[in-house]
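Hi U.,

Before I forget, here's the chain from the pilot set. I'm dumping it here mostly so it's searchable later in email.
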Amino acid sequence: MSKTALIGKSKELYVATLLVTRHLHVYFPLVDNGFDLVVTSTDGRFHVPVQVKYKESRTGLTLHRDDAEKFRLANAVLAFGSGSADVENFYFIPAREWCERAEDRARGDNKLAVYFSEDKVWADQYLGNAGIDRSFASVLGKT
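Structure:
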C-alpha cells in the first residue's frame, strides 16, 4: 500500500472515531462500493454513506463530477480534512448541500469545487463537532 493510501486509511479511521464520540453508529463496508464509512441511526432504520477526503492543505473542497453526483443521490456526508488530526480541521457537509454550491471553473480535471474564499461562512457551519451534529441531523431528518 502506498504512503498516500495509508494516510487516507488513517484519516478514515480518525473520522470514524470522531463520529463514534458523537454517539453515531459507524460501519466499514467490506467491499469497496465508493464510500468509506456507513453511519446508521440509533434504531438502524437509516443509513448514511460517508466519504472521507484529505489533503495536507486546502483552499477549497473538490470532488470529481461523477463522484459528486453519486454522493448527492446517496444522501451522503462528505468529510473534508486537512492539516493535523484535529476535529476542527474537518468539515462534515451533506453532499446535496455541497453540490448546490459546487462550481465548475473549467479546471480541466472534471472536478467541481467549493472555494473557501467565496463560501467560508457557509462552510464553517460544518466545521468540527458542530459540523458532525448539523450534517447528520440534516441527512437523518432531525432538523
